[in-house]
Write a structure and sequence with these properties.
Blueprint lengths: L2 H12 L3 H20 L4 E3 L3 E8 L2 E4 L6 E4 L2 E8 L1 H4 L4
Antiparallel strand pairs: 1-2, 2-5, 3-4
Helix pairs in contact: 1-2
């Protein structure tokens, strides 16, 4: 499902105008991004939760040359599915 698909669902299900549906989706996604950027997690009951995890620096390998490369520490977004979502994967 794409962002455009979400907008179309709002248009069909809620009877919103396209412009209002775009504002709702952009506001929702923007607030999620801002929350993660500020180090806060996101929890959507029944769907799942998003958290920021920090990866430690490590020594990697360039697959073309085989030479060792230092990989710096970084932050990644981690998603943990909720109970309702887990039912579909069993």
């Amino acid at each position: 499902m794409t962002k455009a698909d979400l907008i179309n669902v709002l248009i069909q299900e809620m009877g919103m105008s396209k412009k209002n549906a775009e504002v709702v989706v952009n506001t929702f996604l923007g607030s999620m991004i801002e929350s993660l950027r500020n180090g806060k997690g996101i929890e959507l009951r029944g769907f799942g939760s998003f958290r920021i995890r920090e990866r430690k620096p490590r020594i990697g390998r360039n697959p073309q040359t085989g030479e060792k490369v230092k990989v710096p520490a970084k932050k990644i977004v981690y998603f943990k599915p909720g109970k309702e979502l887990k039912k579909f994967t069993r």
